[in-house]
Amino acid sequence: MPGFDALGLPPAIRQALDAMGYAEPTPVQAAAIPVLLAGRDALVEAQTGSGKTAAFGVAAVKAGSEGPGLRVVVLVPTRELARQVAEEIRALGAGSPFRAVAVTGGVHAEQEERTLGGDVRCVVATPGRLLALLEESKLRVDRVAFVVLDEADRMLDMGFAPDVEKALAALAHRAQTAFVSATLPPEVRALARKHLREPKEVRVGETHIPTSLTHFRLNVFPDQKERALVALLRAESPERSIVFVRTRDRAAAFAKLLKAEGFAADPLQGEMSHEQRRHVFDLFQRGTTRILVATDLASRGLDVPEMQLVVNVDLPDEDEQYLHRAGRAARLGRPGKVVSFVLPDEKERRVELEDVAGAAFAPYRLDIPEPKPPEPERRGPAGKGVRGPPRRR
Ligand code: AMP
Fold first, then answer.
1. Per-residue model confidence as pLDDT tens digits over 59-109
2. How many CB atoms lie within 10 A of CB 244?
3. Is 80 exceeded by the pLDDT of residue 313?
């Protein structure tokens, strides 16, 4: 694979990559950077963790350095991703005349004005937020040359298609467009046909899932999930872990349980305010919190290299979610584990997910402790003892 030197990068960006500690391009970077630097439209199939952000980030910095005014717009599905993408682009643009900001909403008007003040060259936003800014005439987009649609598949899944269409129409003067997507289903391809000009398709490898991941299954009964999770986290004691559950109530309940058991855990769910989520993210990134109990929506964009363990306490309903969840671990090929709890009536679903992952789930060996005996019982009438916990098969 060619090194960064072979990719024809402007010297300032080359230095920034060094400063970020990126020694070699990832496969998607090696494939996409030359295409994007040559000014071509691209349809890039790349999952989170592949280094996709820097792949288009390099081109964003180059386009953004070409003169004053807003030059680059990156559309993303979530606020957290907006923050992370802006951060990465800022790092890549450290040596260039360049300012990249995330416009996430949920902040005071004055703060947003400050964010957008000065010579901003790159804006990262959700489609809805971008449209709101345009409506309020807070953004001039007549110089925008490069537009990126990041996590295109997810955006469509989340029902953002109308906003995406409107945003792309408002950015019609752009010279170059890139779509980045973990998968390329027909809907994404249709959007690409409509909005990309003779795009170069960039796909690296057929697998969507890092091979450094090991997939496990743990067969449980419904009432064993709590105890199994506690025992699993004790056994693994991961540097960082994310635990997936189906609903926000379950996220709150499991986080509470883990805290009571002495773990540094927090819930992360979609209904939390922007500030709350950001706070939880920051604590997790710093390592103050080591376990997040999350719903699918809330975990988008979460990118922590120390993530070692993903636990599916509740199996995902959609195949795609399995890939996104698993992708949180094994960042850039680091070894990671995914442990999925499987209920007796979920065997078929497990087999489907094995197909999705492209690997059989190995049985995870764990002794799930019996439930704690109830508090010392008040004696029942006529000396009848209180029954012990039901025995499990
Ligand atoms: P992404 O796919 O953009 O979410 O990137 C995943 C992670 O890889 C991020 O933590 C990046 O900081 C990191 N990363 C991206 N490119 C490289 C590279 N060439 N070398 C080392 N780390 C990288």
1. 999 999 999 999 999 999 998 899 999 999 999 999 888 899 999 877 888
2. 29
3. yes
Pocket of ligand 1 contains residue 47 by CB under 6 Å: no
Q: How far is the CA of 50 from the centre of ligand 1 (A)?
A: 6
As to burial, measured by CB atoms within 10 angstroms (0-12 exposed, 13-18 middle, 19+ buried), residue 237 is exposed
Rounded Cα–Cα distance for residues 125 and 73 (Å):
8
CATH for the 213-363 domain, from 3.40.1190.20, 3.40.50.300, 2.40.110.10, 3.30.420.40:
3.40.50.300
Q: Is the CB of 48 under 6 A from ligand 1?
A: yes
Out of 13, 53, 240, mutate this one to test ligand 1's pocket (max ligand atoms within 8 Å of CB): namely 53
Helix 52-64 and helix 79-92, axial crossing angle in degrees, nearest 10: 60
pLDDT digits (tens, 9 = 90+) for 99-112: 999 998 778 888 88
124 pairs with which residues across the strands? 74, 102
Q: Alpha-carbon distance 184 to 188, whole Å? A: 6
Closest atom of ligand 1 to 25 CA is 19
Burial class from Cβ neighbours inside 10 Å (0-12, 13-18, 19+) for residue 350 reads middle
Please list the residue range(s) of the chain that carry CATH number 3.40.50.300: 4-204, 213-363
Is pTM beyond 0.70? Reply is no
DSSP string across 215-279: EEEEE--GGGHHHHHHHHHHHH--SEEEEE-SSHHHHHHHHHHHHHTT--EEEE-TTS-HHHHHH
Q: Is 84 in the pocket of ligand 1 (CB under 6 A)?
A: no
